[in-house]
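step: validate -> pass
step: tokenize input -> pass
step: predict -> running
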Amino acid sequence: MRLTVADTVGMWRRAQAIGDRDVARQMRKIFKDFPAGCRQDPAAAAEAYARLMFTTSKLGRPGVRVEKQFKRKCFDVGLLGSTSEFDRLTKHAILISESCLLFHGTEAPYHHLGKRVDSIVYTNHDTLQPEGSDDYTVHYGIHCPNPSVLGTWIIEAEPLIKEGLSWYLPSYSIRRESSSRYGWHSDASTQDEHEPMSQVSPADYLMRGGQLIDPSASSPSESPLVRPVLQIDLPVVEGVSLRNFSRITVDEFDAHKRFHEFLSTHFLSMSEALNAERSQIELARLRQEIEEQVSAVRAEFVAAARRRPLGAVGAKVASTSARLVAVDGSLMRRVLATPGPITAEAFWATVDEIVENHPRATPNGEWRYVWVLSRKSRPL
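step: predict -> pass
step: emit ->
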């Protein structure tokens, strides 16, 4: 008998595989409203997702659907150069990130999506007849190198997205038109060019307490403002498509969940250790605790692969190298405020430039963290 993916993961013990609950709640609403048939067309899926994430108020003010719900939240952010890296980062970051935000900046090509029209009608209180109106039109689109590739990621990662483990933040540009009519008087204004929309950025979510995830195997230079914390081998599931990986992860998530909770408590101790007089001793203690926990997760992965029919879908447990780097908080803010694309190459180049230009700068005691992941993995 040939086992399907559904048969295989159905044999796995069910778990409540939820990353960020607020993300899960909002993303389930998004996918519930997906137009019929768009999952068979990746480009249509990307456009549907972006349209559903876009909203306007009664006065024609544009915005992102989830901003109000996420106004106090922080997220981990992936440093990417192209959409083609989404799959690998999603697979390799799942153990270290409770909810990873992926995005394209406004430097990516623009793809028009449509327009939203809102009107306010004014009524004469004596005649109860309309006597004027304000009309607002917003033409909008997203910045994305390839909507078809993005749509494929959205379709295949849907189980992870709906569990709040990963999500995509569109970058919008808009062009506005407005007109007013009152009696015989009329007025109109038109914006000539599309301009980036004012919205909460990935950097904003990151600086509230998230981590950067760099999948490009970068080699950041050490300095008082950029300090290595640890280097470990993380267990990962390889040999399967992102669709199968998503289903497997959602159906067997206890190990990931426990490790997320473990890391969240240890990051608080990590900042204290970096600022301690005997920081190397404190960091060594934390490294040992984290390495022991990773070893326990790795053993659980290997045991699961041996006793469950993961081979039916070609899944294999592998290992990928990861380095955790601490970056001074004020330095991180300056780098993220620098104009230009937020890619791994641009990020570390700007870090090196600022450090070189300010050789006497000292840490302010606030640290932000970057996971640098290897591009490769090896079988366990």
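step: describe -> The longest strand covers residues 110-123.
step: cleanup -> pass
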